[in-house]
Design brief:
Elements: H1 2-18, E1 26-33, E2 42-49, E3 55-61, E4 65-76, E5 79-84, E6 88-90, E7 95-98, E8 104-110, E9 119-126, E10 132-139
Protein name: Copper chaperone PCu(A)C
InterPro entries: LpqE-like, Lxx211020-like, PCuAC_sf
Pfam families: PCuAC
């Protein structure tokens, strides 16, 4: 019985370690829509759940891209516009979705070897929270979120 309890406790501790520290932001559902034309930028999306304290997503690193910029899509004078932003607010306990038509990241000079159906690494960097590394699913141009 004692061995069984020890195994349950050890499993719980391992799973807690995988999801980050309690109270820190978490991220999931990361994906990248590949560009329709080689040499054009790709777009990256992810869902971030805020931790105990508000923070800001300051940047995203994707080793398969030469440059990553955070962007915001907005309507100006009846026209849609994408503009770079310095950061994206992540409220305490709130959820922020980087998604098509809203906040997202643009990936420039993406490695041409990346193919739909694969994955690549993505690291989210915050101003007041530890970085989060995760795998992003690669989606074909025009494809829907996985």
């Amino acid at each position: 019985m004692r061995d069984r309890i020890s195994a349950v406790v050890a499993t719980g501790l391992m799973l807690a370690g995988c999801s980050g520290s309690p109270g820190e932001p978490r991220a999931n559902d990361a994906w990248i829509r590949l560009p329709a034309v080689a040499g054009r930028p790709a777009a990256a999306y992810v869902t971030i759940t805020g931790g105990r304290e508000a923070t800001q997503l300051k940047t995203m690193q994707v080793p398969a891209a030469r440059l990553v910029e955070l962007h915001r899509t907005s309507a100006k004078g009846g026209m849609m516009s994408m503009d770079p932003v310095d950061a994206i607010d992540v409220p305490a306990g709130g959820t922020v979705k980087l998604a098509p038509g809203g906040d997202h990241a643009m990936l420039f000079d993406l490695e041409p070897a990346l193919k739909a159906g694969g994955t690549t690494k993505m690291t989210l960097m915050f101003d007041h929270a530890p970085a989060i590394e995760l795998e992003a699913k690669l989606v074909a141009p025009g494809g829907s979120a996985p």
